[in-house]
Write a structure and sequence with these properties.
Blueprint lengths: L7 H23 L7 H28 L5 H23 L9 H24 L7 H22 L10
Amino acid sequence: MTGTRWSRTGLRAVRATLLALCLLLVLVVAGCARQPGGVTAELSHSSGDVVSAVASGHEGLRSWAEDRAPRHYVRVLFDDLIEQSLSAYGAVVNLDIDDAADEPMRAGVEDAMAQATRVLVAARSVTLLDRQDPRVSESLDALTKVDERLQQIVDDPRSAAGARG
């Protein structure tokens, strides 16, 4: 690879690396401790899907910022990650809650997922900027923070209740 011009081989290598990282993150999240059964398990599972999307987004943005991945590839990656996040959000919104006591937990998970999706959309948009723009670093920090919040929810979905906003 020379300059900012990417060869087909280079693009394939970047694509394969990012795909492998995404798959690894999915496997790690799938192996995370989940609460047994019911609403709690579904909220944990759906939150795990969003954790995976956010972590993959962080890696993709970092790769682009370090000039290891082309802009157009990372933007397509973010399109897929945003879709993944929205799908998980839809699963939570449509979850049948039988116990009113579970509603604050679901509402907190919804808020965290909505925030994660907003952060993913913002991260996608910073790829239109110069790599050295301070908003790129700010976006990486935002991805890290939302990832930490969601990881707590994966580990204990009940922690989302009362943690709205």
